[in-house]
Specification:
Layout lengths: L5 H29 L3 H5 L12 H8 L1 H34 L5 H13 L2 H12 L1
Length: 130
């Protein structure tokens, strides 16, 4: 493990703060845009000092279609998570504890499917069905 000298520590923290601000800027911008009014959001140049308003959220949650869609998404997410756990936990336990002939091959197959880039699968499907 390498050590950072005390003189360079300020430089390292400054670079970390710079990179973190670059990565967090889009998220902060989205959050700030969500609490602006429509006119402030669309104004050019952007308004930096504004009065936060939650009228967009109240409009969104007062719509029955959005609430229904949100609840459907929550139900599907919970159900798919429970089904995945019900299938994956016993399979992982069997791969870890029991010794059977195809154990290494099956474990390698599972890991290799996780390492395969999705674009390569899409290209194969495109060539197969088009």
């Amino acid at each position: 493990m390498f050590r950072i000298q005390k003189g360079n520590l300020l430089l390292v923290y400054g670079l970390l703060a710079l990179f973190l601000s670059l990565f967090w800027f889009p998220i902060v911008w989205i959050l700030l845009t969500s609490v602006r009014s429509r006119s402030e959001t669309l104004s050019y140049p952007p308004v930096w000092l504004f009065r936060p308003t939650f009228e967009g959220f109240s409009y969104l949650f007062s719509s029955s279609e959005f609430v229904t869609s949100l609840l459907n998404s929550v139900y599907v997410a919970i159900f798919s998570t429970l089904v995945t756990l019900a299938l994956a936990v016993p399979a992982a336990y069997a791969l870890a504890r029991f010794d059977f002939p195809t154990r290494e091959n099956l474990g390698f197959y599972i890991i290799s499917t996780k390492m395969t880039p999705p674009c390569s699968c899409v290209i194969c499907l495109l060539l197969t069905f088009c």
